[in-house]
UniProtKB/TrEMBL annotation:
Residues 1-33 form the signal peptide. Belongs to the bacterial solute-binding protein 7 family. GO terms for cellular component: outer membrane-bounded periplasmic space. Keywords: Receptor, Signal, Transport. It comes from the Bacteria. InterPro entries: DctP_fam, TRAP_DctP, TRAP_DctP_sf. Pfam families: DctP. One of its GO terms (biological process) is transmembrane transport. This is Tripartite ATP-independent transporter solute receptor, DctP family.
């Protein structure tokens, strides 16, 4: 029997109603049985990897408290940090735990890498977990569509070299240091009187062994874990940059979760970030002893010497960032004020 205009409308309406109902049921089912993909570039071993420990803690807590499933993708299995951030933005990755590369997506993040800004880890934690970190997270959410669930740490970076002990910027003159190919690091090393060399990570051991460079800079866990003591005789605990880890979630995915799931995810991320900090601190403290046992001569600059490092390195980096950030340069002063306030409590 041919359909009349009326029966056609009824049929279309029923079809649309059924489609909407099916979509609603599918969305509800997806929200209740959703899988979160958590990716980072560190090894999975929680005893040696801050991000590895954070990921495993996050997975265990979320799965214990909700019906969500968390899949872990460690060791750069889904790409480098840039690819992980891009994946989180397009939703193919739910959560990315990253560090320095985030400044390429939210430029204000770069201010946390201003050398000799954080005098200690507790001050850094106070700043990042307080009003400054909250405001930075909100700013970056608007810039990137990624919600910062919590902060962890990559830890303090230090200089090593094969020529002489370094007690002051004058001791760095004439030395070549491998650094990341990031303008901020190039400005910092030049400000300290040394010559920066941008060398790919995979080429660093050969560059150190053959004398292409005299030294490099990294956290203690990286220095020990990569056996740099085989090529480097001197370690200076100058704490020139404190690396921040960002635990980021695609905001559309986050908003698709129920309120209970969102709360559980946020709690788990805070515990994960704190766990990562603890693992990093333990490995750094233990690593100093291990490096000494391997024969490295370790120098701890005095307060006066640290001030000399700060006065040499900060101005060129701040000048570079002021020009580079434009309106976002206000974050330099906001961070400085937050650090000053937190330092008064430690």
């Amino acid at each position: 029997m041919p359909l009349t205009p009326f029966t056609k409308k009824v049929s279309i309406k029923r079809t649309l109603t059924a489609a909407v109902a099916a979509a609603t049921l599918a969305t509800a089912a997806s929200a209740s049985a959703q899988t979160l993909r958590f990716a980072h570039v560190d090894p999975d071993d929680w005893t040696t990897s801050k991000k590895g420990a954070a990921g495993q803690v996050f997975k265990n807590l979320v799965e214990a408290e909700t019906d969500l499933t968390v899949e872990l993708y460690p060791a750069g299995s889904l790409g480098g940090e840039t690819e992980l951030i891009e994946g989180a933005q397009d939703g193919t990755i739910s959560i990315a735990m990253v560090s320095g590369a985030y400044a390429n997506f939210c430029e204000a993040v770069a201010v946390t890498d201003i050398p000799y800004t954080f005098p200690s880890a507790p001050v850094a934690w106070e700043v990042m977990d307080g009003e400054f970190g909250t405001a930075l997270a909100e700013h970056c959410l608007q810039e990137t569509g990624l919600r910062t669930l919590a902060y962890g740490e990559t830890g303090f970076r230090h200089f090593t070299n094969s020529v002489r002990p370094i007690h002051s910027p004058e001791d760095m003159e004439g030395l070549k240091f491998r650094v990341q190919t990031i303008p901020l690091y190039l400005e910092m090393v030049e400000g300290l009187g040394a010559e920066p060399q941008g060398i790919a990570w995979g080429e660093v051991p050969t560059a150190l062994a053959t004398g292409v460079v005299d030294g490099q800079e990294n956290p203690i866990s990286v220095i020990y874990g990569n056996n740099f003591y085989e090529f480097q005789d001197y370690l200076t605990l100058d704490r020139h940059v404190y690396g921040v880890d960002h635990i980021l979630i695609n905001d559309e995915i986050f908003q698709s979760l129920s309120e209970e799931q969102q709360a559980a995810v946020k709690r788990a991320a805070v515990v994960a970030g704190t766990t990562g900090r603890a693992v990093q601190q333990f490995n750094s403290a233990e690593g100093i002893s291990k490096l000494a046992a391997e024969g490295m001569e370790i120098t701890q600059p005095t307060a006066e010497q640290m001030e000399a490092f700060r006065e040499a390195a900060q101005p060129p980096v701040q000048a570079y960032l002021t020009e580079e950030l434009g309106d976002d340069a206000e974050w330099i002063e906001r961070l400085s004020s937050a650090v000053e306030e937190a330092s008064a409590r430690f």
